[in-house]
Every structure is written in C-alpha cells, then in structure tokens.
Specification:
alpha/beta; TIM Barrel; three-stranded parallel sheet; 10 helices; 9 strands; 48% helix
C-alpha cells in the first residue's frame, strides 16, 4: 500500500496537472500508442476503467514502462477486492462512479488516493468525511459549471473533479466555477481517432485541453 507522502504527492499532481484521461474500452493493442500521444500532448495522468477488458494488465504495463513519466490508476472500481487488485497491478489511485463508504474508508486507511463519485451536496460531504482526497462530481453534465459553483459556495473546503460531459467547450467555465481537476473520457480519448491510429491528431487534441488550462 502507499505511504502518506506518496498519497499526498499523487493528489498534488492531479490538482497541478488537472486532467485525468479516462481510458474506457481501449484495446490493449492501442494502449501504448495512445499513452505516447497523450504524453506528447502534455497529459500524464491516466485512469483505466476496470470494465475495460485487460484493465489490470494495461495498468501493470503502463506502470512498468512509464514509471516516473506517468501516473496511472483505475476507474469504475466498485469493491475493496477491486482496490486490492488495482494496487497489486501497480495502480496509484482509485476512482469510483459512486460513493461507497466502506471502500473509501479502506483506501483512506491504507493511504491510497481515492476519488469517489458523488452528485448531491450530501453525497459530496459524506465522501469527503469518509476520507476522499478529491470528490468526483458525476455526471457533471447536464448540470454544468453552475452546479459546481453552487456546490463550492458552502463546500469550498472540498476539492471537486467534474467528470462526464467535460469538453473543450466548457472546461474553462468549469475551472472558473471552482473545479480543481477533471476526468475526461471520450471527449479526449477519442475512439474514432484511436481506431484510425491517428496519434498525431490525438496529441493535438490533448494539447488543446492543456493549453486552455495554462
């Protein structure tokens, strides 16, 4: 399991870099080229969802090949066993679509960075109090940046990561609304470009996101 220092460093990195690229349904044969394309575009934090075939194998591969260049974790983690499998594969952080208090407390007790999904103010506060490092507000759309701003009013002590519907057209507004970071899937990890092997265009797309946040 992670040390407190490692946990704090990873959470600081997510807040600094801001974008967590979500790899859902990406084929193993494409993951290295995709990772290179994202790295070349300035994105160095990847979340491989556990409902992706071969997810643990991909996490292990990325951790071994890009150690020091890349932070890699897992998303769609639903159980404590899932957490243990991810950490065993070398994953550095856990993301969930929902708030599971037992899972969050397990991660917190073992210094594993955890970003659980929540939607209502009550869920956000409960996730934070259970030990979440950052709370993933999911789905962020169709509520939009105004919802993040409304949550941050009374809950400005809680770090929020909108996920689900964040794209080039609204990421700047989400940032202004108080988001500390973003989970971005298909809007960035574009399946069409991946299938075409258009890594140059994927790098260009990644650069568009990172340039907005500078």
């Amino acid at each position: 399991m992670a040390s407190l220092k490692e946990r704090q460093a990873l959470v600081s990195l997510v807040k600094e870099k801001k974008i967590v690229a979500i790899l859902r349904g990406v084929k193993e044969e494409h993951v290295e080229n995709l990772t290179e394309a994202l790295l070349n575009g300035g994105i160095s934090i990847l979340e491989v969802t556990l409902n992706t075939p071969g997810a643990l194998k991909m996490i292990k591969l990325l951790q071994e090949k890009y150690s020091g260049e890349l932070a890699v974790g897992a998303g769609t983690v639903l159980t404590i066993q899932g957490v243990q499998d991810v950490i065993g594969a070398g994953g550095q952080f856990i993301v969930t679509p929902n708030f599971n208090s037992e899972l969050v407390r397990f991660c917190d007790g073992n210094h594993i960075p955890v970003f659980p999904g929540a939607f209502t103010a009550s869920e956000v506060v409960a996730a934070h109090e259970a030990g979440a490092d950052i709370v993933k507000v999911f789905p962020a759309m169709p509520m939009g940046p105004g919802y993040i701003k409304a949550l941050k009013g009374p809950l400005d002590h809680i770090s929020l990561m909108p996920t689900g519907g964040v794209g080039l057209d609204n990421i700047g507004e989400f940032l202004k609304a108080g988001a500390c970071s973003f989970g971005i899937g298909g809007e960035l990890v574009n399946k069409k470009l991946i299938e075409e092997g258009n890594w140059v265009e994927l790098t260009a797309l990644a650069r568009e996101y990172t340039s907005i946040l500078k």
